[in-house]
Design goal:
single chain, alpha+beta, Ribosomal Protein S5, domain 2, Alpha-Beta Plaits, four-stranded antiparallel beta sheet, 9 helices, 11 strands
């Protein structure tokens, strides 16, 4: 039996930028999806404790629905890169929550790609695999996916964030202070990108990059430009003065305000979580992931992280759906 793991990710800063070639600063977390491959097969046969078993063509060529779309799309994209149509029989397990803005769909694509490449003896450069999985996820859910989530899952390094230039796919590792913790605060609102306005936001930004002067499109562009500056500012602070917590926290809050006002992907619940986290001692907080639901990431001193998270959730619970809270290990 062979096992492969793909972690989820939390994004410190640099949201809604990777699909436009911008800068991002994600980090892999200690929650992941694992696949255990028991034997080869002439098809891709997958079982999961919380999903119905599926069987798809080894080349991904058959029509599929439901979660079978993911392995089929991954197999098809890998086939374009020379993977032989070798099947697997495997079981998938996960402690990574879905719909929480922690890239569970990207981790699913990556872990399946690792297993399929291994079965077919295909050695792919991590960037090629990330791009293939990004295309596969887009094919599976019908939206324009960036590559940040897949790069973070593949290239994440404990104790570090990954500075990604999504235009060149170049990465640099940025050390994270050991006295800080990222606390993920789930709003309780599960979202699916294909059911949101995510794709419309991508289109509006692309129109702005192509020269549109529509006021809405220009707000999307303003977010991209200001968010790139915030990523650079946070990286500079982490590298030059990791104790410059006010500067880092201010960038996170400003990033949330830009996602709320210029990119318009926040929600009442996410806004409330950010405000409550800041009121209960967070250094900075903002929505993480594509928005329209999911989670907030809050930065806190390690000694204060548990109390801040508990107090925030306690204040939030009375007015909104039952949330979740967990520490994200880096």
């Amino acid at each position: 039996m062979t096992a492969f793991v793909a972690p989820g990710r939390v994004n410190l800063i640099g949201e809604q930028t990777d699909h436009a070639g911008g800068l991002c600063l994600p980090a892999a977390i200690d929650r992941a999806i694992e696949i255990e491959v028991r034997r080869s097969s002439d098809r891709i046969v997958l079982r999961s404790e919380d999903r119905v078993p599926i069987s798809v063509a080894a080349d991904g060529g058959e029509p599929t629905e439901g979660w079978a779309r993911f392995p089929a799309a991954v197999a098809a994209e890998l086939g374009r890169l020379g993977r032989a149509p070798v099947g697997i029989e495997a079981t998938i397990t996960s402690d990574l929550p879905e719909g929480a803005g922690l890239s569970s769909s990207a981790a699913l694509a990556i872990v399946i790609a690792k297993a399929l490449c291994d079965a077919a003896d295909l050695d792919l450069d991590p960037r090629e695999m990330a791009l293939a999985c990004s295309r596969a996820e887009g094919r599976a859910v019908g939206v324009h996916c960036g590559v940040m989530d897949h790069i973070a899952s593949l290239r994440g390094l404990k104790g570090h964030a990954v500075l990604l230039n999504a235009a060149s796919l170049e990465i640099e590792y940025v050390s994270l202070p050991t006295h800080l913790r990222l606390v993920v605060l789930h709003s309780g609102v599960r979202r699916r990108l294909e059911d949101s306005s995510y794709d419309r936001r991508v289109t509006e930004l692309r129109r702005a990059l192509a020269g549109s002067d529509d006021p809405v499109d220009l707000r999307r562009l303003r977010h991209l430009q200001s968010e790139n500056r915030r990523v650079a500012d946070v990286v500079e602070a982490l590298c030059a003065d990791p104790e410059a917590l006010d500067r880092i926290g201010a960038a996170l809050v400003a990033g949330h305000e830009s996602l709320r006002d210029d990119f318009e992907v926040s929600t009442t619940e996410l806004d409330a979580l950010v405000d409550l986290a800041m009121a209960h001692g967070a250094i900075g907080a903002r929505l993480t992931g594509a928005g329209f639901g999911g989670a907030v990431v809050a930065l806190a001193e390690a000694a204060d992280a548990e109390a801040m998270g508990s107090a925030t959730i306690g204040a939030y619970r009375s007015a909104f759906p039952p949330p979740q809270r967990f520490l994200a290990g880096l």
